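Supplementary Note 3. Input sequence used for the single-chain structure prediction.
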Amino acid sequence: MSALVRSVRVMSDGRGNRKMKQARRDARRAKKRRVDAVPEPPPDDRSLISFAMENPWGLLMFASAKVEAAKPDPFSNWRSDQRTSVDFGHRLQNFLNAPHSESALFVALFGELLDDQELQQRYRVALDAYQGPLPPWVAGLREVEVHRAVRHSYVLGDFDELWIGARLADGREATCVIRMEHLEDSEIVDADLWLDAIDIHMRRSSNADFTTVDMRLADARAWIERSLQQKFVFRETATWPGCRPLVRWLVGHMPEGGDGYQWSGSAWGSGRELADEFFACEAGAGFDRRDHLLLLTDLMESGTGDPLRWSARRVEHVLESSTLHDHSLKVLLEVPALLRAFIPFAHQRSGVREGLTAEALAALEESQKGDGLSVAG
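The predicted structure, written as discrete structure tokens, is reproduced below.
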């Protein structure tokens, strides 16, 4: 429920509906982005060697999910399905008691993906002492090469996808895709693996609402590492946070010393300059500058902080947040009307296409529905 609705004590299920719609949008985007489903290994160890030879990245994803599932789950009391986790100490002891090639596969994988340094070192020591055969890519896991990073950016600034190109020791490539949302902070909201080389996806990228450019590997590492520090994952997907250990492992093979995510700011300079122009134009002439300047400033600084670009998701986000609670009720009631006038004004100056403007305005109208009541401007 939006801060506006709370201010006038109007109870609405609008926020819940928007959350459900956002979840459906995320699911559609994830399905669209996935080029090929990562196969899972067979249910027993009998065919693991052949599977590992054919699907190295699939086995890495599977092992990553096992490592993630073994971590303490702060939301376990609220889950209808309980996670099953691996006892890594017990599994290592079984390998030491009776080493064989199938179990050595997972010793190698867990020796890379575990973030418990003491346990990881025990796995690595056990693998180094193993004298049996291993597929070349498994034996060379520590030599994985992360060779390219690409920033795939949404024109309205809500999110970026970082594409990380990686190559195993036997030459087989994959692309790790990390989706980062910037509406509150740079937060990882999804990650997945494409079973194709990153160069292939660069050639396929042609969406007019996105820009796709190379970025320094060190900068990509700084972006991702900061977001990996988040303690809780509130929005889970089919592959996130299951592939978090895999993401962390790949990031560890990227150079350090880069610059983290920073909003580049508006080409129009200060928000005050833009506000002055808005209140002086026909669209803003109907608002009292004394009452609305501070409110407009807060709105411009909300979400991504870019005053010139407004997505439907950003509109929903600002109406659901508590960032506007310091304003009087009289001014709060003007928020929908103010945004309805300001968004087309801002998009005209930033060159955002009309279809995206219409989506933002539709989200604004939808936010006011609920129980037959609306907060009108």
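The beta strands are 145-154, 159-167, 173-181, 187-194, 210-215. The longest strand covers residues 145-154.
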